[in-house]
Specification:
single chain, about 180 residues, alpha+beta, two-stranded antiparallel ribbon, 7 strands, about 30% strand, elongated, binds zinc ion
């Protein structure tokens, strides 16, 4: 997977069905853009999560021992897009991370990178929420941690049952 994925051939085959409706130039452009888009949506598989977890934390309370102290750190509205494992259609939204640190804290941009690496894969929202929590618990060993994801699922939008309730919230709590 080091070299990344290539879906040009697959999209060429899909778009060959539309030769009666699109010009060759339109088909070539669509092959390029659609395969690029799909490659991006699964590009998280190319990220080494162990490497991303290394040196991710900083010391907290290094000089002051105060067990009564309980700072809550909240990183809100981190945007993400992911690919529904069942329908291969995108779901997207935002992720909130709230945690009470023990001895370690984490850089905000590292949190964003972790969420990106885990969301740019074929996922179910419930598992994505859990995987983000698991890796952050491993890195931070926090007093408590909550991962909350709000997402719109395009697979639910094309559901012909007329069900419009397509915003889903999942919450993973650790204490
Ligand atoms: Zn789906």
């Amino acid at each position: 997977m080091e070299e990344g994925f290539r879906f040009v051939k697959n999209y060429r085959e899909i778009l060959s069905n539309f030769q009666d409706y699109l010009t060759n130039e339109e088909i070539e452009k669509a092959i390029k853009k659609s395969s690029d888009g799909f490659e991006y949506l699964v590009s998280g598989y190319n990220t080494n999560l162990d490497a991303l977890s290394q040196d991710a934390s900083y010391d907290f309370y290094s000089e002051v021992e105060d067990s009564q102290r309980n700072q809550e750190i909240s990183i809100q509205s981190i945007k993400f897009i992911s690919l529904c494992k069942h329908h291969l259609l995108p779901f997207f939204g935002s992720c909130d991370i709230i945690y009470c640190p023990n001895k370690k804290i984490i850089g905000f941009s590292r949190v964003v990178k972790i969420i990106q690496a885990l969301s740019l894969r074929m996922q179910l929202q419930e598992n994505l929420t859990k995987e983000i929590a698991d890796i952050l618990i491993k890195i931070l060993e926090p007093k408590s941690l909550t991962v909350k994801i709000h997402a719109i699922h395009t697979c639910m939008m094309i559901d012909m049952s007329g069900n419009n309730g397509n915003e889903i919230t999942t919450v993973e709590n650790y204490q």
